[in-house]
Write a sequence for this structure.
């Protein structure tokens, strides 16, 4: 089969490699589409993992083979593949910190080499632990593979929205209107709250309004805080969601968040970044700082229902489609986006990949 093998920093090799052999409790899935995630880009562009590996984890496809002991799944079923499933009994899992679980981090789907997601290949193997504990989701007939590939990123964003306890009637600031920020806007609206978005690109500011933001501003606007205050009766927003790794965005959020409000870090900052802050600001204003990383088993069913019931418009997030062999070009497009670049999808079958430029 064909796969994009990570051979070193910024080195992707489109290679012929063996199709994974499955054990008695495992499933082999033919990949139809896989989303390109910022975490994939980070792993490809920085020396974080030893090669060789095959990344990619926002995967939807068709079951191509099942092990002898596998029950309830059969060849030909259309499925979403979830690349991580926690153990459910360690100290982290018992406290709903599923993404900190060692099993969650180490048992993952694979297309070969060190297991690393494996979606950037024609076939991916799903380990028994994942098969047996909810890591395959059947795709309804009315849902496309493209739409289904959004279940995992929806889970990640939904986890953050739940952690911030966003409720009807609240107002939420979303910093950054890329694919993740736009999904946050949709989910904020889904939960009955109001969304205010910021971005640097006029096209993304307009897109934010199109997907449901109540207001959207240029992040460089010197009057941003005053405008947010005007929209919130002088209070400030209840919660700020940082969807971009920007120190400036954090301080804007701090200015815009009401006393007793919350600021949630969703985007991952470079390790060398340090943000100086006077702790008395948090103390006197009772601001809660929190982080949300990866997905949550707890919201998995709800994330799937939101996508499969089309309660958010994931189609509006897709801007580009690339064949698997052009993954390097897709990464470059994501790193140096055009004003129209949003979510990029990757296809092992080239006939399905048509750029939306």
């Amino acid at each position: 089969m064909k796969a994009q093998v990570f051979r070193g920093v910024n080195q992707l090799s489109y290679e012929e490699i063996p199709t994974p052999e499955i054990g008695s409790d495992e499933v082999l899935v033919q990949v139809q589409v896989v989303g390109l995630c910022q975490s994939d880009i980070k792993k490809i562009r920085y020396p974080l993992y030893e090669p060789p590996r095959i990344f990619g984890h926002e995967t939807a496809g068709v079951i191509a083979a099942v092990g002898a002991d596998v029950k309830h799944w059969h060849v030909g079923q259309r499925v979403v593949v979830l690349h991580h499933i926690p153990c459910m009994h360690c100290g982290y899992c018992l406290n709903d910190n599923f993404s900190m679980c060692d099993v969650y981090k180490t048992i993952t789907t694979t297309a070969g080499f060190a297991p690393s997601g494996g979606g950037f290949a024609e076939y991916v193997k799903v380990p028994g632990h994942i098969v047996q504990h909810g890591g395959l989701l059947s795709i309804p007939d009315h849902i496309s593979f493209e739409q289904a590939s959004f279940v995992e990123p929806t889970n990640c964003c939904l986890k953050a929205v739940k952690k911030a306890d966003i409720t009807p009637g609240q107002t939420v600031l979303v910093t950054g209107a890329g694919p993740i920020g736009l999904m946050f806007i949709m989910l904020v609206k889904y939960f009955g709250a109001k969304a205010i978005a910021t971005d640097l690109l006029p096209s993304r500011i307009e897109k934010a309004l199109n997907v449901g933001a109540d207001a959207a501003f240029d992040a460089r606007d010197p009057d941003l805080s005053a405008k947010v205050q005007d929209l919130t009766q002088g209070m400030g927003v209840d919660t700020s969601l940082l969807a971009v790794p920007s120190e400036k965005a954090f301080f804007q959020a701090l200015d815009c968040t009401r006393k007793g409000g919350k600021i949630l870090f969703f985007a991952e900052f470079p390790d060398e970044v340090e943000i100086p802050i006077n702790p008395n600001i948090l103390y006197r204003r009772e601001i809660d700082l929190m982080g949300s990383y990866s997905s949550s088993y707890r919201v998995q069913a709800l994330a799937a229902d939101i996508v499969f019931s089309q309660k958010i418009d994931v189609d509006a997030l897709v801007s580009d489609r690339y064949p698997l062999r052009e993954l390097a070009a897709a990464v470059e497009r994501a790193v140096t986006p055009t004003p129209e670049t949003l979510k990029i999808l990757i296809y092992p079958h080239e006939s399905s990949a048509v750029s939306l430029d």
Notes: The chain has two domains: 2-154+296-352, 165-291.
